[in-house]
Amino acid sequence: MHDAFTGLRRRPGRTAATALGIGLATALVVLLLSLSTGIQQSSARLATASGVDLLAASANTSITSGSFPPVESAHTLAASLPRSDPNVATASPWLVAPLVFGNASLRAAANASPRGGSIPPGWGLAGAASIGWIPGRNAGLEVPAVYAGPGFSSPGDPHYANGSYAGPSTHEIVLDQGLAGLLNVSVGASVWASPQSAAGPAEVAGWYANASSFRVVGLSGPYWLFPSSSLGFFYLSELQGLLGPGSTRGDEASLILIHLNDPTQADHDQARLATAFPTLTVFSLGNILGAVEQAVSLYRTFGTLIGLVGVVVATLFTTTVLGISVDERSREIAVRRALGFPRRAVGWLVVQEALVLGVLGLCVGLPTGLAGAFLVNSFLVHLVNGLPAGFTFVAVDPFVIGSGLAEVTAIGLVASIGPAFYAMRLPIAGELRAP
């Protein structure tokens, strides 16, 4: 190994450039692997802590489709699931829909001028996702905590009134901090919501005339399930009423979130509920995490291809440098051979140089890749709103470190094959007679 270091010290510029090339390839692989590992681990941790053991959707729904056909008879189903399976502790129907929101200031400005001339530049309606649920049906599920205001006045769903939809409408809404900031409202303020939008300032006054008003009864923290969204939370029946008569006639929801008394038997409960309710598709936490794994695997495959290109380039560059080194030291190698050095000792010397270059590259690439990963994580955490505490896009584990070590070892070994054979086959007499 001493001879390998001595040979590399003779060419410091070339050695540094080669180690840097290997280091950059290593840094790229470490960065991509730490990102994919972090996303996967954080998603699995959040899903496990969410309290959602099973997820029921409409029949023939794929969890990776991104859209969920409506589940009908949501209130009735939520009550029927625990009766069909005593292990079901909570069955919470959720209706997820996009809505458009406006505040009192914009309403006053719109009413002051029918053509919208009084609306200041930059003011407008705000689009946001909305969730309709039954507050008392979320026991055991992780939902955003209300940090200001009393929250919903009833744990049930008063307007539903056992299917008649003739009960009192509370006109209550809880806003997460993102939507509250966007609308510039606090607890006690009024906001208006509608599934329709307005094409321009001239239509804003008409939009308010057809929108429904709600009183803000609480401000909540962000919700990890919709990390990049501003959210409004409604009673299920009142959001159904906003979406139109069809939603109330069918008593629609998007999903039913199920929390089990004993989650260790989730597969058994999944099969039992799927048999009892053929109109539903029931997913387990394993199915949900499998979908996350599939999405991360696509990213990881893409990242692996990019990393592979970097590794190949670094390997070819190292092979070229080692070949030049052998060519420049051909007389020295011939002298060693003439003094009795066996061929394998000459070849091993080249392999040692390649491995030393790999170690130097690892010393450069590993900290560079980790620093880059944490910089990217810091950027993404500030870019994406509503991330839960403790969520990280980056995770460094033995797999990531081991992958970097395996990469530089592979680069060194593969890059040394050609130059080592070249050094072993140099003709002794011809090199010694060369001028």
Descriptive notes:
The protein has 435 residues and is an alpha+beta fold. The chain folds into two domains: 2-46 and 291-433, no CATH class; 72-278, no CATH class. Helices cover 53% and strands 15% of the residues. The protein contains 14 helices and ten strands. 39% of the residues are buried.
Extract low-pLDDT stretches: none
Structural class: alpha+beta
Helix-strand string? HHEHEHEEEHEHEEHHEHEHHHHH
Largest sheet, described in full? Answer: 6 strands, mixed, barrel
The rough form would be described as: elongated
Average predicted confidence as pLDDT: 81
What attributes characterize this protein structure?
435 residues; alpha+beta; six-stranded mixed barrel; 10 strands
Give a short summary of the structure.
The chain is of the alpha+beta class and 435 residues long. The protein has helices at residues 2-9, 12-49, 74-84, 104-112, 177-183, 204-210, 236-243, 245-249, 266-276, 285-328, 330-338, 343-383, 398-424, 428-433, and strands at residues 54-58, 88-103, 126-133, 146-148, 172-176, 190-194, 212-220, 231-235, 255-260, 280-284.
